[in-house]
Amino acid sequence: MSNINQNELNSAICDMYDIQKRIKIHKLADLPKDDEGSETTIGNCVNDVLEFLVNLKKVVCSICKKEIDPKKEYQLGHNAEPVSSERCCTKCNYEHVIPVRIADIVSRNKSSKNKLNKFVDDLYSGGAK
Ligand SMILES: [Zn+2]
Question: What is the pTM of this model?
C-alpha cells in the first residue's frame, strides 16, 4: 500500500469523519442504505468505508515514534503543535503537547496567568463551569 498518496488518504479520511458527523446530526445514519429492503444503514456504510481507509494508514507518533492505533486513539492522533508539526499519540498529547501549550499561554502575559490560575482553582474546587 506504499503507492497510496498519504495526503490524499488523510483528506479522504477527514472527509469521511465529517460525513459521519453530518449524517448523525441530520439523523440519516440509521436510515437504510437503499430502497431494496436492506437492513444495512447509511451509518453502517460510512463506518465500514472509514474503517477501511483508516486501516490503510499507519500513523506513527511524531514524539515517541510508537504507532498510533486508529481504533484506540483519537482519529489519526492529535495535533502536536507546537512540539511537532505532525501527529502525536494521546499519551504524548497529555504529557508533552498540552503542558507546552499551557506554558506558552502563561508566558505571554499576566492576564492569561491569572485566568489559568482561576481556571485551575475552580477545577479543583469543583466550581468550574
Ligand atoms: Zn507518543
Answer: 0.49
- Ligand 1 center from residue 78 Cα (angstroms): 10
Q: Which three cell numbers stand for residue 82?
A: 507546537
Residue type, 8: E
> pLDDT (tens digit, 9 = 90+) per residue, 16-67?
999 999 999 999 999 999 999 999 999 999 999 998 998 887 788 999 999 8
Cell of 65: 515514534
Q: How far apart are CA 13 and CA 57, in angstroms?
A: 10
Three cell numbers, residue 67: 504507532
91 C-alpha to ligand 1 centroid (Å) = 6
Report how far ligand 1's centroid is from the alpha carbon of 27 (Å). Answer: 36
Cell of 129: 463551569
Q: HSE of 74 in the Cβ direction (CA atoms, 13 Å)?
A: 13
> How far does the centroid of ligand 1 lie from the alpha carbon of residue 92, in Å?
4
Euclidean distance between CA atoms 21 and 37, whole angstroms:
25
Q: 97 C-alpha vs ligand 1 centroid, how far in Å?
A: 10
Residue % of the chain over a pLDDT of 90: 55
